[in-house]
Specification:
Radius of gyration: 17 Å
Protein name: FAR1 domain-containing protein
Helix content: 10-25%
Strand content: 25-35%
Strand order of the largest sheet: 1-2-6-5-4-3
Order of helices and strands: EHEHEEEEEE
Number of helices: 2
Organism: Platanthera zijinensis
Number of strands: 8
Largest sheet: 6 strands, mixed
Shape: globular
InterPro entries: FAR1_DNA_bnd_dom
Amino acid sequence: MEIVSDLNVFDLDEALHNTNTILESYVGLQFDDLDSVYNFYNAYARSVGFGIRKNSGAKSQLSKELIWKNFVCDKSGLINQYSTKEPSTSKKYYVTRVDCKAKLDVRKNKEGKWFVSGFEKQHNHGVRYTEKNNKASIT
């Protein structure tokens, strides 16, 4: 297994963008910390054309330290349609959550390293990379 440390997100973004193939077999890849995991997945997401956000995680019942975490597509989840708040008529709200299942799961091993335990690349919405402004756009 490869351990990724001192990850420079700009180097990774350039490497992902300049290669013809996108790295997709992440399961087993190890990282020193959660920031490195986030930077790695964020660089991948930007190169493919979607945004990410930190989602759920869990702490050990014994040590109270974080033992797993997942990062999801920014379109993951659904908007609560049964809100008790009355929507404002002056604001327009756009549906941005479409229950996308794309995600990256990580767990902490006994040595304190984070490893990728699950990866789902399939989106249920369009993704697009825009060369013009070098930013990812969601369609």
